[in-house]
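seq/struct pair 1
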Amino acid sequence: MDCKNFKNTVADLFDKEVAPNVKAACEKHISQCAECREYYEELLTTAELLRPRHSPVSKSENITAKTEKSTIFYKVAAILVGAIFLSGIAYATIRVLSPKLMTDEEKQMLVAHFVSKDCKDKYVIARGDEIIVNWTEGTWIQDGEESFIEEHPTNVYGYAFPVKTSTVMLDGQQLDIHFLPKLPASALKKMEIEHGKNHSWVYLTTTPVQVPADVKGNINPELTILLTGKPPKDSKTKSSIWTREGINEGFSWKNYTFTSWSSSQVWNIGWQLEEVAIRKDHHVRVNVCRGVSQEHINRIKKLMQENGVTNYEFINQK
């Protein structure tokens, strides 16, 4: 997921029934991108300003609201504010499609027709009918400057391209949304996406492709977790846990990315551990600062077990 995709999908995070893979994709991007993390905070702050004063919700409250009324308000506010922020470019970008909006058959297909009028979300309806694209492990994805080989057994989420602002080509032929071929997702060898100001071009290839040697998989098998016990005063956050891709020997929070202990908030390390565990050669290092309680260490160990991480080490600060 890139910045455009995140901003086009962020409103779904305010839905308490948001699909886990959509949530995970947004969490992953927001944990790595300071700009989008700031965008989300601005979005949440603005939505809070729009909230009726008789029903206040703290900015630090769980992103998935505790009541149906709160959920509806925040999602509508997020869509409204997001549309203003994006200044109309949202309709030309990819939408990350929740699996709950697809049938079991559609999830297995390379391309499928998403009928927007069947959805209750006015934001989605406004995009018009879309072509869904799915893929599986081994597919080469080239999205703008981002290029990688899919390493997940199945694609984490589908992409939906609005017909009115996208052109989808399959092996050199433009697809007609009303006459889509019946091909399995595993048939796709490469998907290349080019973004214009008001239009996107998508090129799907089912014939064998030669992948350049410098194109790597999209899972980093190495992860470092920093336990600081109490949050550093200058970090301006209530978090006491931090993460960083790769192996890092440092104990300064400034060299890590902000995350959170709470499994219900956006910055959660559960998806990171689960993803790392997909690679058999994974390695997780936990840097433990002075004063960290055994309770926090045990919580990390439990998360490791729950997410299938077997190769890890705890290093105490000297």
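seq/struct pair 2
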Amino acid sequence: MRCRFQSKQNTLALGGVDDPQRLGSVPVQMRRSIVKIISDSALQALVSMTLAVFWIAPASAQVDSGPTVLIDQWQGFWLGQSIGNWTGLITEMDKVGGQGRQGEFYTRQDWAGLDEPAIWSDKPSEISNTIDFVLRRPSETWGADDDTDIEYMYLWTMHRLGKAKLTPHEIKEAWLRHIYDEKTPTPFGVDESGYQNYLWVSNQAAHALMLEGVVPPQTSAPSNNPHGDMIDAQLTTEIFGLLASGRPGVALDLAYLPVRTAGDGDAVLAAEFYIVLHALAAEHPRGSVTTEALFDLAQAARKHLPEGSTPALMFDFIRARYDAGFSWEETRDALYLRYQVQQRDGYSVTQRGLYCNGCFASGINFAASLVSLFYGGGDLKETIKIATLCGWDSDNPAATWGGLLGFMMGRSEIERLFGESLSDNFDIHRTRKGFAEDGIDTFGNMAKMAMTVSRTVNNEYLTSPE
């Protein structure tokens, strides 16, 4: 079974919807009670829909939640993810700890400086020789990567099927329809493990199992997949939080099987933290994000992590370092020592002797992502900078927080921040297959798909007690 630990090949050719009903949490029990006392089923459905129209999201979240604003926010999600993803790819796996240059971590002074080779290469990144923002102008196209393509695949499949929650067999069918089989020639050539299909570690193991007929969640069961504690689940499922705006319980239900397609144990908790955070952040009125607002959202999402769990202890450790006034570089160095060297708080990946000391693991990358989240303080540019320089699988947190903050800000605010218009063209066929228009889509169309799916979510979970 293919693991693809040793090389994430950067083949780097960058390549009229109604407003969804955003149902709030407080009135749901009352709404259910009213519906229950009505005996006629047709009338029940009519009353349910009527109540949904009036009892929607909290007033603070409806300041400007019309269709135009939501389209701008969803485009901001995809644009922010793409900027973070491709900027973070420049430094992906340059710095992972240990001996030699890979253990000499970047600092703030390295921004706009020369990129150093990743652990699998002796050359700088093919994207850029310097560490700086990657931007694509209107005549150019953003390429898909594993931080965006699986989310696109889930969104497209939910939209095509007209349903909110995918079954195990629907997930398997989507993976097999849109992901190349590594055992047969692909358009992407070969790497040391076989034909390139832009899957690695747990995702690759899950896909191989699906080709044998196995379906989620058995595709991440330790008896079938030894890589369930790697990073895969937390970079492919954040979108489910935004699809259930303000309803983290619904978001977790939607994402239950997608998370467990490749994630197990603490990797599930890390992925679910991201999902809850996105669901809560989706209620934030569009615009700039204050540090206070961001920290309130993060602390609310922290409540999902069980006390004493490794992800919870990581969160508390990094938050305490931030509160104590340490720099982000000092905190990053401290988390490296605490988790990859000392193996504290139940984090024991090092003792397994994995390639690059488990640099693809969920835990160390979850901890690193919290550094950029806290020290970025809601500033999109600063957050992506820190994520890019922090180390390990740097494109993952850069993409995750780029998408989160991008949704909260909206595309128009991102473009104002960078002082120019940016591309909304997206090439999903850079890594995947089987989509319309030869894989060329736009953020505008992707936003409309998301709004339609969000409406489907709200309709299917109309009486959910959240």
